[in-house]
Amino acid sequence: MKPLGRLRLGVNIDHVATVRNARGSAWPDPLRAALLAEAAGADGITAHLREDRRHIRDADIEALVAGISIPLNFECAATAEMQSIALRHRPHAVCLVPEKREERTTEGGLDVAGDIDRLTDYIAPLREAGCRVSMFIGHDPRQIEASARIGAAVVELHTGHYSELLADGLESAAAEELEGLRRGARLAHSLGLEVHAGHGLTYDNVAPVAAFAEVMELNIGHFLIGESIYRGLGPAIEEMRRRMDAAREGL
Asked: Which of 83, 154, 178, 215 is deepest in the core (most CB within 10 A)?
């Protein structure tokens, strides 16, 4: 299958805010990081406004909406509060994610199949406001099919399990998970959904996912913010961009 277009890179700047909040100061500024990412070639900025505001805060979303010129992907839980915030700011995209207060990071995909009626009603005003609604899900066909059924424009496949298996040296299990992601990407594309992927991606594991012809965007954050300590944020992003493009060549 021929590539469906240039693979986009969305840079998640949540953990710039994590560092800022650790000292209760105004530095480092997530907006400044977003502007550096934009200058380095990022195609979009992702920010997750959690219910507990552990990293990104409401003022950060306001600053990002006003300050960046590339699309903002607003990640949030499917709550009335977050819907109201999204409708007020009308970001380019709204990605719905599962959220638990005790988790360190998003641990799995959203259960769309188990919440079809509520999510159908929930995303309707977001769609009407012009936001591209995305479901952050695993590669279970039921979840992919349910995402298409409720009218989502995009699914973002959770690559965290694949990434963890590779990091633990479980290459056979990682290959099996990768194949599941590949099948999921193909199914989603066949249903008319745009396919994104993200969570846990690094320089070492990004190439196989970037090589999926159906995937149009990768969203990467924690690794790039960590790598920026050594390289600087711009060079860290540029290197990820280079590896993504290399993986895409020849498709």
From this structure: 215
Rounded to an integer, the average pLDDT of 194-205 is 97
Average pLDDT over residues 39-65: 97
Q: What is the pLDDT of residue 3?
A: 45
- The alpha helices in 130-196, defined as continuous H runs, are 141-150, 160-167, 171-190
Beta bridge partners of 135: 96, 155
- Alpha carbon distance 83, 96 (integer Å): 10
Task: Let me know if 4 is exposed, middle or buried by CB neighbors in 10 A (0-12, 13-18, 19+).
Answer: middle
* Residues 158, 136: Cα–Cα separation, whole Å: 7
If you average pLDDT over residues 53-64, what whole number do you get?
97
**Segments making up each domain of the chain, as ranges:** 8-248
Whole-angstrom distance between the N-terminal and C-terminal Cα of the chain? Answer: 7
Give the three-class secondary structure for 93. Answer: strand
Q: Note the CATH number of domain 8-248.
A: 3.20.20.70
Backbone CA torsion sign across 177, 224, 207, 73: positive
Q: Residue 111 above 70 pLDDT?
A: yes
The helix (run of H) or strand (run of E) holding residue 37 is: helix 30-39
Q: Provide the whole-model pTM.
A: 0.93
Which positions are annotated as active-site residues?
48, 75, 199
